[in-house]
Amino acid sequence: MTAVPVLETRSFSVNGRDVAVTAPEDASLLAALRHDLDLKGTRVGCTEGYCGACTVLVDGRPVQSCNTPLWAAAGKAITTIEGLAQGDVLGPVQEAFLIEQAAQCGYCTNGMIMTVTGLLMQNPPATKHEIVEVLDERHICRCGAQPRILRAIDRAIAVIGGRK
Amino acid sequence: MTDLPSNLKSNPLLSRWLTVDEADTITIRSGKVELGQGIATAMAAIAAAELGVPVERIRVENTDTLRAPEEGWTAGSFSVEHGGAAMRFACALVRELFAEAAAARLGGSAGELSVEDGVFRRPGANEGLGYHQLRGAVDLERMAGDLPAPKLRGGTVDRPGFSRIDLRGKLTGPGFIQDMALPGMAWGRVLRPDHPKDRLATLDVAAVKARPGVIAVVVDGGFAGVVAERDDLAAAAVEFARKRATWTRTAALPPMGEANAWMEGVPKNSTTFLADEGEAAPAAFRHEADYSRPYIAHASVGPSTAVARWDGDAVEVWSHSQGIYPLRKGLAKALRVDLEKVTVRHAHGSGCYGQNGADDVALDAALLARAAGRPVMVQWSRADELSWSPFGAPMRVHLSGAVAADGTITEWAHEVWSPPHLARPGFGDGVNLLAAWHLAEPHAPSAPNDAPRPQGGGDRNSVPLYKVGKRRLTHHVLPERPLHTSAMRGLGAHCNVFAIESFLDELAAQAGIDPVEFRIRHLEDPRAIAVIRAAAAAAGWDPKDAGGEGTGRGIGFARYKNSGAYYACVATVSVEEKVRVLKVQGAVDAGAIVHRDGVLNQVEGGVVQAASWTLKEEVRWSDAGFGVRSWADYPLLSFSETPVIETVIVEDPSAPSLGAGECAAGPVAAAIANAVAHALGVRVRHMPLTHERIAAAIEAA
Ligand code: FES
Ligand code: FES
User: Residue B396 — pLDDT band, cuts 50, 70, 90?
Assistant: First the structure.
C-alpha cells in the first residue's frame, strides 16, 4: 500500500488563467508547474536555488520556482515562458535571445529569459549592469553561451527601451 | 563497389539514413546525436544542400537503436567529419535514385534534370515532380555500395540568419528528456553515499516504504532506490532513507596534496611511445618544468535523466547518452538480458561535454522500472550529479627541452601522468555503468585502459605539431584513481596543450625571441601558421609590448588531436586580486564550413568553458568523501567574468569539414597562462590559476 501524502489545494493564476493545484503540502512552485500543470518550459535544474533554470515571474518579479513553496504562490500571478508569446509573436526578450542564438543546449535559457523580462518590465527598467549582477548571482550557464546572452540583453534593452 | 565514407560503409542500407515522407518532408536519421552543440542543424544543412530541398522541410528524427545508423559515440569532434560525410553521401545517392525515377516520368535522362526546392525539372520546364510524388517509385531498401558513386553537390544551405532548428521549440516550451511523460510513469531516485568508497550496509526498507507516495523501495546489494508517484516525493523519500542508512567504508582516499601530489603514490603503466633516434644538435640552454590540471566536473545544468519501460523481458530506455548503441550493449550486459531485448532512444538533454551521468542514470532507470513494474523516470540530484558523474581526468605533465644558439629547439621530452580518460559503456570487455558495480551480483568494470592512439586519452595532443628536434614521449596511465574518470571535452588535450604552449613561451623568452615568431619558425604546416598569424593580427600583436604592471597578453595554439580543427588565440588579461580575462581573439580553421554560426557558437562556448576550467575549477575531496556537493562548491566563470570573444574563421572550402567544439580548450588555457606571465613576469604552471598560486609564484620570484 502506498501511503498518501498530505495534500493541499492552492489557487493562483498562471499566464492569465486561474488554476487550483492540489499537491503535497510541501511541493514547490516548480513541481506544481511541471508536474501538475504540465508547463515544462520552466526547467528543472539543481532544485537548490543556485542555477536559475527554474525562474518564473511572480507578480512580475523573477523568482526561482524550485525554492518557492507552492503556498507562497497562492493568490499570486505567475508568468512562465509559455506566457511570453502572443500566438506566433514571441516576447521581446525571447525574440532577442533567438535572434542572437544565445544558447547552446538552451537548458539554462528560459530561466534567463524570465529574469531579463522581469528586470526590464519593472519600473524603472533595470540597467544592463544590474541585470548582469542578477545573472551572476542567480543563473548558471555551463555551455559558455554567456557572450551571446550578453548580446541578447543588449538587443532586448534596445527593443524595450530600457536604460543602458 | 563504390568507395563509401566509413560510417556509410558500416551502415549501408539507405532507408536507415532517411525517409521521404508523404507530407513533402524528408526525415533524416543520424547516429550523431544532439548534445546542445547544434549537430542536428548541421546535419539538416548538409542533407538539404545535397538533396536540393529547403532546410525547413528536413525533419531530424531523434535516433534509436531500432533504425538509426550505428555511428558509435557523438564525441571527439568527429560528428561533422565522419557523420556529416556519410549523411552527405547517403543523401546524394538518394537524390540520384529519385532523379532516375523523375526522368522515367518526365522523359530525358536523370543527368539533365535539375532539383531545386525539392522538385526535379527538365531544363526550362515549369512543371516537375517533387520527392514526395516519387516516393512510391523509389526503393530505399538498397545497399549504398551497390549503387554507382553519386556526384556530390557539396556545399550547405548556410546563409546569414540561418539558425539552429531546435532552439525556437526549446525557448518556448518543452524539449528535453526531463519533459517526457509516459502513460503510468512513476519517478525514481537512487540513494548514493557521500563518499566514493562507501557501500550500503543496512537500510530500514519498511520505514522508507511507508513514506508518502512511495511505490517501491529497491535494494539489490549496494544499489538502493525509491520509486514514487511524484519526483518530489521520491526525492524526499531518498533523503529520509539517507538518514536511516548505514555504510561500510571499503577503502580510504589518498590525501589530495598540491597539484595532484597524490599521483606520486599510485601504480602506473608507462609507455614511451615515441623516441627519435640519433644525436640531438648541440644546445645553448636547457629548461624543464612541471604543469598540472585537477579533476574537472561536467556540471551539466540539467540533471542526468532517463526513462525506462519494460514489456515482459524487453526494455525501452530513453537517454541523452552520447552513444545509444554502446549504451544498449552496456545495458544488456548489466541487466543480463539479450541485446535484442534492449532498445535505446535518444532524447535531448542539457549541454553535454563528455560522459556525464547520462549513461549511468539509464541503468538506474532500467533497474527501478523493472522492480516497480511501471515506466520510471529517474533524475539525479545535484549532489549526485556533481559527485557521481564521471570526472574529467586530472593530469601532470613534465616537459624538458633544449635550444640551440640560433633559437632552434633541438630536444623535447614530454611525460604525462593521468588516469584513463575513457571508461564509457561499450569500451573494453567489462560493464562501465555505475549501478552494475554495486549489485548483489556485481559486474566488473572494464580494465582501466586509456583511449588508444592516435586519438589518445591522457596523451591526446602530447605530440607537438612543431619541429622540436629529437623527441621523446612517455605516457603513464594511473589505473587506481581516487575519483572515477571518463571522457570530458578534449580529454588530455587541455593540459597537454597548456603545458606545451606554456613551455614554448618559456623557451622563447630565454632565447629572446617573440613568442609568435618563435612558433612560426618551428612550424611547417601552412594552415597552422595561417591561424596563428590571423589571431595575432586580430589582436594587434606587438612583439615590442613588454607587458608588466598587471596587464598582459599571451598566445596559444593547437591543432586538435593533431588531425582536427586548428585554433590559435591571443588572450588579454589583467591581474589584480585575481586574473580577469578581458579578451580572447582567435582564429579557427575547421575546413569547409557547414554552419558558420554553429562553428562560432561552439568555439565561443569552448573558450568560455576553457577559461572557467583554467581559472576557477577544481574538484576536491577529503577524508569525508566528495568535496563538491552543490553549485556553491564549484563556481563557474560568471557573466561579469566572461571575456569579449572575437573569432575569425579561416576557411578552406576545399578541405574536409572538421568539428570545432574541442579545439579551443588547450590554446585558451595556455594563452591565459602566457598572458599572466606577460603581465606579472612570473609563471603559474598549475591549474586553476588561483589568487593563492599567483601570490605564491610572486613570492617565489
Ligand atoms: S532549479 Fe531552481 S535554482 Fe536551480
Ligand atoms: S546553453 Fe547550455 S547551459 Fe546554457
Answer: very high
User: Which cell numbers hold the place of B200?
Assistant: 550500503
pLDDT, tens only, B63-99: 999 999 999 888 877 788 889 999 999 999 999 999 9
Q: How many residue pairs bridge chain A and chain B with CB atoms within 8 Å of each other?
A: 185
Which atom of ligand 2 is least distant from the CA of A103?
1
Give CB contacts under 8 A, 24+ apart, made by A31-38: A31/A70, A31/B230, A31/B231, A31/B232, A32/A70, A32/A73, A33/A65, A33/A78, A33/A80, A34/B179, A35/B230, A35/B231, A35/B232, A38/B181
Please give the pLDDT value at position B426: 81
CATH value of A92-163 in 3.30.1300.10, 1.10.150.120, 3.30.360.10, 3.30.470.20: 1.10.150.120
Mean pLDDT of A93-112: 97
Residue B133 CB partners (closer than 8 Å, separation 6+): none
CATH number of the domain at A7-80, please? 3.10.20.30
What is this structure's pTM?
Answer: 0.96
Identity of residue A74: A
CA-to-CA distance for B170 and A143, rounded, in angstroms? 15
Q: Rounded mean pLDDT of B687-697?
A: 96
pLDDT band of residue B264 (cuts 50, 70, 90) is very high
Residue-by-residue DSSP string for B498-519: HHHHHHHHHHHHHHT--HHHHH
CATH code linked to domain B6-170: 3.30.365.10
Which residues are CB-contacts of B199 (< 8 A; sequence separation ≥ 6)?
B193, B222, B247, B248, B250, B438
Which ipTM value was assigned to this complex? 0.97
B121-138, pLDDT tens digit by residue? 999 999 999 999 999 999
- Residue A140: CB within 6 Å of ligand 2? no
Q: Specify the fold of B179-250+302-388.
A: Aldehyde Oxidoreductase; domain 4 (3.30.365)
| Candidate of A35, A40, A66, A107 to mutate for ligand 1, largest count of ligand atoms within 8 Å of Cβ | A66
Q: How far is B384 from chain A (nearest CA, A)?
A: 11
DSSP structural state of residue B420: -
The two counts, helices (H) then strands (E), for chain B are 17, 26
